[in-house]
């Protein structure tokens, strides 16, 4: 495995290796060990052509705990915002000797363009591309779910997950649908019909337009962020109506099963898709998701960068 | 392929090592056993049991995965990382006995020493191995050895343990020259 | 450029009969079996099919404005290489071909290149903005004699503007070539809307956005009794509407591109913008309907929508990239592969869909004529039993954005004659 561009690059076995590795790394980090020498001398570039402080910091912490050298190349002030092409940026990174590029980009497919091009030879890790995918987020979500609800097995067989909100524009939803179903979970997408993509029928999920029908039966409620720009784009009448039908409020919280957990990839719109009291409730594992992010991203970097480059390898 | 150690050879060697550890450390009170996964971890459990039956006391036993500290990651296919579990007492000030199945180049032990250094500062670190097959590439030696097996570099030594492989034996594969 | 006397020996005419052909000056002088003529340059056409010179009704030549991507001259070379004797220069140049000055310039550049006829298409509206009609009459009366008007790239969306345009061109039996794309349903659209776009997170271009405009336009055309040509039909639904309109006697013609006969939207999975095109690549089901419609005549012609783009407008993120792909040099091979080799059409049908019918729609009198004595010697010689491999580094076009790079295709073009001149001789452009 050389790149992580999409969850569809992974087999169930690969995903479990990453989750197991993350679990071990977390135990190491929980002890006294803050730093491992594994990637000493390797250079990892965080290429963030779109703002995302939390993902960038998470990858940076992961890389540093593995002793890699980290170079941050973020949108503001970088040449990307000045219209430099992806190609030129990639060639610059190649010249700098980047062993891996963690890329966040507003264009769907930009990481794959980097990986497939001859512009650079390092590993490419998709840290969120447009409305396509966000594989490391899905892996940390699966890791969090397994930690709380895993029934001893290494996968998520039988666990019921509702993913609620703007599926159409959500890279987190796309990656999670692929990963959670790959690991045996049952996924239900809950959204207004306007925020589900045409073609969603072919996904291995259930679809519901009614949050109240779903909330009591699931083990995990994963809320998606509603972006401000959707408000003016006819997807729903207004924020109040969205919140009433698709927000996670105290009434819906009360209907959830006692063991069920609440997740959100952040950043949250409190009061819109999730009520503040719910976000801060004991059932919410939102803060923990952030902490798990570092272990999972360490595992991703380890799996991609630690082994010998194989002759025939490309993507998994 | 030839059998270098039988099940009873292994059993006797481990009992002897247990005695030697106790003798050298004047008892078990400050000992912590750390096996290197996977087979070293099983050997550590066996030695712990053996010490328990000799001394009548429990010795803290754990395992130490050294994968993340290896210096050959880039020249070998990816290795899955194994579990690390450090006993509750920790290793600070303890006499740590590292336990592995085969001592060869010494690089694994070098990595183990690095890994230990990240966790704490033991009073001493000693090394016990079931087989020492020679061909060291680093200045490392074992304190307790089950059996010295002269081999050629092209041969391979396979340790099989009941817990994983269904039987106890040590095999040498390949021609000696 | 060689212009003298040629004798094409042993080739098959589109109807399958074997004839020798003598070309003298601009004309075909003899069509007969067993001719020998010691004064003529003899071309051995054994095993080849001889077609009337191909006519493209939809070509982006990029001149004026984007000479870095293509020029009239380079497109003419690409056309000759692909067996074409006439191209139709789309109006979306810079400046836009919305007045007599620009169309005459393009026409003259075509004459100067001298490898084929370049017939300018005039813009329907000023600046392709869809608001005010361009100088349609002046372009029709110019040296370029424009008969086809199109805002291609943009849809003439306002129904009133479309109605007026359809009415206005009746004066000289013109035709409006519509790029059928409902703009509000395709804001920011990147590819066909469906299973693949959902997975890739690329904004969808729904089939309905094409079909809604086709439906509206055939009804308008019927109402004002004018003539409509639908550019690059891509959807099974669009085909159905056109079939219905023709059955009602509405004067509508339609084209399909070679790439829409072969390529599907799953190619977008690579995110390689060489597959980004407007209208987008669709599904297997659409391809099936398009092939069937081309075979039964519901779709009248194949047109390339040849759209050269510079490297930098394709070597980038998908959503940043330009729409369009090269088409001239591969068109006939793709048609052979998808329509002839599949048994859907005969070479006679190819001659109709790629030469006679487009010439008729465009009003190009000296093109698309039969292969008979006294007609202009516009001829294309193809060996259908040979194959070739597409190499984007070896194209005649200035751009390299062919989606067929590396494809092995049937049908090797050996010669093209434009008014008696060999513009392609033994596979080499004159």
From TrEMBL, chain A:
Annotated ranges, domain Aspartate/ornithine carbamoyltransferase Asp/Orn-binding: 158-303
Reaction(s) this enzyme catalyzes, per UniProt: carbamoyl phosphate + L-aspartate = N-carbamoyl-L-aspartate + phosphate + H(+)
GO CC terms of this entry: cytosol
Name of the protein this chain belongs to: aspartate carbamoyltransferase
EC numbers on record: 2.1.3.2
Role played: Catalyzes the condensation of carbamoyl phosphate and aspartate to form carbamoyl aspartate and inorganic phosphate, the committed step in the de novo pyrimidine nucleotide biosynthesis pathway.
GO process terms (BP): 'de novo' pyrimidine nucleobase biosynthetic process; 'de novo' UMP biosynthetic process; amino acid metabolic process
InterPro entries referenced in this protein's UniProt entry, alphabetically: Asp/Orn_carbamoyltranf_P-bd, Asp/Orn_carbamoylTrfase, Asp/Orn_carbamoylTrfase_sf, Asp_carbamoyltransf, Asp_carbamoyltransf_Asp/Orn-bd
Pathway: Pyrimidine metabolism; UMP biosynthesis via de novo pathway; (S)-dihydroorotate from bicarbonate: step 2/3
PANTHER family reported for this sequence: ASPARTATE CARBAMOYLTRANSFERASE, ORNITHINE CARBAMOYLTRANSFERASE, MITOCHONDRIAL
């Amino acid at each position: 495995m050389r790149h992580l561009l999409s969850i569809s690059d992974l087999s169930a076995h690969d995903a479990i290796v990453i989750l197991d590795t993350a679990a071990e790394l977390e135990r190491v980090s929980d002890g006294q060990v803050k730093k491992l020498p594994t990637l000493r001398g390797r250079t990892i570039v965080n290429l963030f052509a779109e703002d995302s402080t939390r993902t960038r910091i998470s990858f940076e912490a992961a890389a540093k705990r593995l002793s890699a050298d980290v170079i941050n190349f973020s949108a503001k002030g970088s040449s990307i915002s000045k219209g430099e092409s992806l190609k030129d940026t990639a060639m610059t990174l190649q010249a700098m000797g980047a062993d891996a590029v963690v890329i966040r980009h507003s264009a769907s497919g930009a990481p794959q363009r980097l990986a497939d091009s001859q512009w650079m030879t390092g590993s490419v890790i998709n840290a969120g591309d447009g409305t396509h995918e966000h594989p490391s987020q899905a892996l940390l979500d699966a890791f969090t779910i397994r930690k709380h609800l895993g029934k001893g097995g290494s996968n998520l067989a039988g666990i019921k997950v509702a993913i609620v909100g703007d599926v159409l524009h959500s890279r987190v939803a796309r990656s999670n649908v692929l990963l959670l179903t790959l690991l045996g979970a049952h996924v239900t997408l809950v959204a207004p019909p306007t925020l589900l993509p045409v073609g969603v029928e072919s996904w291995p999920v259930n679809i519901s337009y009614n949050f109240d029908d779903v909330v009591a039966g699931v083990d995990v409620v994963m809320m998606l962020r509603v972006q401000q720009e959707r408000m003016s784009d006819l997807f729903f009448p207004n924020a109040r109506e969205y919140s009433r039908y698709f927000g996670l409020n105290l009434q819906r919280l009360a209907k959830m099963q006692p063991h069920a957990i609440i997740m959100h990839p952040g950043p949250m719109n409190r009061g819109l898709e999730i009520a503040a009291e719910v976000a801060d409730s004991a059932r919410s594992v939102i803060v923990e998701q952030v902490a798990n992010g570092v272990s999972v991203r360490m595992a991703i970097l380890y799996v991609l960068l630690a082994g010998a480059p194989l002759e025939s390898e490309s993507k998994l | 392929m030839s059998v270098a150690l039988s099940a009873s050879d292994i059993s006797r060697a481990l009992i002897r090592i247990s005695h030697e550890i106790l003798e050298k450390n004047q008892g078990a009170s400050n000992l912590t056993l750390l096996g290197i996964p996977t087979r070293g971890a099983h050997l550590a459990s066996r030695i712990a049991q053996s010490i328990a039956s000799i001394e009548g006391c429990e010795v803290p036993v754990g395992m130490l995965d050294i994968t993340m500290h290896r210096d050959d990651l880039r020249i070998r296919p990816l290795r899955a990382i194994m579990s690390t579990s450090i006993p509750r007492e920790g290793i600070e000030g303890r006499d740590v006995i590292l336990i592995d199945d085969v001592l060869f180049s010494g690089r694994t032990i070098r990595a183990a020493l690095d890994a230990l250094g990240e966790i704490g500062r033991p009073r001493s670190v000693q090394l016990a191995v079931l087989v020492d097959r020679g061909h060291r590439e680093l200045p490392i030696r074992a304190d307790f050895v089950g059996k010295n097996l002269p081999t050629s570099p092209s041969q391979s030594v396979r340790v099989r343990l009941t817990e994983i492989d269904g039987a106890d034996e040590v095999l040498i594969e390949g021609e000696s020259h | 450029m060689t212009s003298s006397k040629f004798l094409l020996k042993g080739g098959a005419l589109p109807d399958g009969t074997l004839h020798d052909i003598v070309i003298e000056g601009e004309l075909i002088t003899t069509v007969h079996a067993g001719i020998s003529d010691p004064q003529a340059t003899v071309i051995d056409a054994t095993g080849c099919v001889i077609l009337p010179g191909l006519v493209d009704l939809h070509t982006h030549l990029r001149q004026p404005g984007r000479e870095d991507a293509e020029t009239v001259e380079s497109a003419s070379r690409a056309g000759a290489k692909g067996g074409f004797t006439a191209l139709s220069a789309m109006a979306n140049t810079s400046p836009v071909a919305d007045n007599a000055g620009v169309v005459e310039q393009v026409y003259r550049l075509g004459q100067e290149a001298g490898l084929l006829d370049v017939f300018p298409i005039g813009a329907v509206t000023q600046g392709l903005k869809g608001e005010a009609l361009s100088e349609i009459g002046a372009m029709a009366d110019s040296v370029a004699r424009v008969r086809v008007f199109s805002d291609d790239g943009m849809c003439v969306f306002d129904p009133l503007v479309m109605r007026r345009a359809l009415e206005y061109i009746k004066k000289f039996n013109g035709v409006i070539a519509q790029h059928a794309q409902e703009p509000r349903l395709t804001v920011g659209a990147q590819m066909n809307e469906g299973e693949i776009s959902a997975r890739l997170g690329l904004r969808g271009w729904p089939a309905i956005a094409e079909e809604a405009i086709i439906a509206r336009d055939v009804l308008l055309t019927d109402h004002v009794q004018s003539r409509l040509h639908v550019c690059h039909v891509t959807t099974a639904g669009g085909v159905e509407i056109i079939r219905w309109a023709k059955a009602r006697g509405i004067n509508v013609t339609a084209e399909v591109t070679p790439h829409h006969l072969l390529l599907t939207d799953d190619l977008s999975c690579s995110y390689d913008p060489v597959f980004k095109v407007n209208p987008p690549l669709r599904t297997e089901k659409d391809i099936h309907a398009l092939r069937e419609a081309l075979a039964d005549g519901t779709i009248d012609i194949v047109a390339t929508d040849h759209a050269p783009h510079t490297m930098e407008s394709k070597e980038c993120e998908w959503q940043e990239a330009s729409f369009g792909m090269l088409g001239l040099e591969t068109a006939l091979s793709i048609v052979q592969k998808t329509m002839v080799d599949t048994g859907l059409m005969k070479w006679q049908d190819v001659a109709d869909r790629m030469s006679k019918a487009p010439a008729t729609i465009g009003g190009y009198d000296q093109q698309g004529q039969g292969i008979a004595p006294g007609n202009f010697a516009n001829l294309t010689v193809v060996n259908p039993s040979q194959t070739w491999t597409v190499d984007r580094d070896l194209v005649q076009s200035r751009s390299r954005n062919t989606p067929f790079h590396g494809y092995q295709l049937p049908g090797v073009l050996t010669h093209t004659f434009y008014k008696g001149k060999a513009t392609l001789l033994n596979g080499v452009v004159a």
